[in-house]
């Protein structure tokens, strides 16, 4: 029944809730505008790996070209690899707004490292996974380059369809793994891991073999896979991705790249890791929302959605799409809401110039509707709301929530409309002259 557009909106949000979405399709739009799960820079992930017995190259980090040059000299390596540090993949094929092509460069000359770093640091690097304008590079990694004789792909994901961790690997690594999954699905191998039993030797060995590691390399790769799995558990990761998980001509298995995402729910017991969070790549509005314990997701329409819970957010966006509208964003209040948060939420929503109307859709299970109503009233009064507002509050303390306070604030109060089908651009525009509330009883 759902229109393709509505299905798309739902997908965006589901991908968000289910990330990492490698096993399904990846959603570019959500990736560009939002971040789910803490993500660290490659150098931070590699430090965790090397502290836990996983093999990575020797490296230094630099935030100026001079430091990069110094680091290259200090490495005293046969060859050096210089890598721009941003929280997105595809850097190798990326382009800087300085004109430099490639966020990953190999050279034997430390002076070249200095020259290249000058064209990286302070400039934006655009890759397939960044917004069009790219992401500003503040740091570079200067590492000892190793020859690679074979590139494979390895990831460990917390996957809902497997009810736990799953190892995903492919002998065809180094490239965009989604393309391999689409063109050669038989080259993607999976091992479901029982989180209580842990990874079995036989599973690690089988994956090593499927990745094409032969002879003594098979044991070495299996050992690295087990160490990566132990790290995954220890740091409460939702994803560890190594692409390429490579092999050198000297017979070493090395993690050449690293991406680790962490479960935000584990922040309380992973303090050291969360302290490394570099928020400079976030949208400022996301940081502001996070300060008040709100989740903000930017989308590209004109109707702001103010909801509680990811499921209701999906349904709300689907309904908006179904009625020919487009959500500008959604702001998830979550549970245990305080009045001040509602006020802050409104402040954030109204600060977005794209927003032409606000839809509040709150199902009061844990949330108390009276608190929401008071928060909205205060926000309307103090922020001098200029755009039309449509409110649906339901369930807990609904009578108080609907009480005079709200009604008194509204000039065009109209309780006659019921049903979310009224939430269309047309209706919203019709009431654009005043603040308008309606309540919908879902019984
Ligand atoms: P990504 O493009 O953001 O995924 O960055 P990667 O760290 O994966 O680097 C991109 C590509 O550069 C890899 O797939 C490798 O082919 C190559 N590369 C990275 N590090 C080295 C290295 O130490 N030696 C060699 N020979 N190639 C490397
Ligand atoms: Mn990579």
TrEMBL record:
Boundaries of every ATP-citrate synthase/succinyl-CoA ligase C-terminal domain copy: 307-417
Site residues (Important for substrate specificity), renumbered to this chain: 79, 147
Subunit structure as annotated in this protein's UniProt entry: Heterodimer of an alpha and a beta subunit. The beta subunit determines specificity for GTP.
Superkingdom of source: Eukaryota
Pfam families with a match to the protein in the record: ATP-grasp_2, Ligase_CoA
Cofactor binding summary note: Binds 1 Mg(2+) ion per subunit.
Annotated family: Belongs to the succinate/malate CoA ligase beta subunit family. GTP-specific subunit beta subfamily.
Annotated signal sequence range: none
EC number: 6.2.1.4
GO MF term (any one): ATP binding
Identification of the protein by name: Succinate--CoA ligase [GDP-forming] subunit beta, mitochondrial
Gene behind this protein: SUCLG2
Role noted for this protein: GTP-specific succinyl-CoA synthetase functions in the citric acid cycle (TCA), coupling the hydrolysis of succinyl-CoA to the synthesis of GTP and thus represents the only step of substrate-level phosphorylation in the TCA. The beta subunit provides nucleotide specificity of the enzyme and binds the substrate succinate, while the binding sites for coenzyme A and phosphate are found in the alpha subunit.
Keywords of the record: GTP-binding, Ligase, Magnesium, Metal-binding, Mitochondrion, Nucleotide-binding, Tricarboxylic acid cycle
Organism, scientific name: Prolemur simus (Greater bamboo lemur)
A biological process from GO: tricarboxylic acid cycle
Ranges where the ATP-grasp fold succinyl-CoA synthetase-type domain occurs: 39-245
Keyword Ion transport: no
GO cellular component terms given for this protein: mitochondrion; plasma membrane; succinate-CoA ligase complex (GDP-forming)
Pathway: Carbohydrate metabolism; tricarboxylic acid cycle; succinate from succinyl-CoA (ligase route): step 1/1
Cited NCBIfam families: PRK00696.1 (NF001913), sucCoAbeta (TIGR01016)
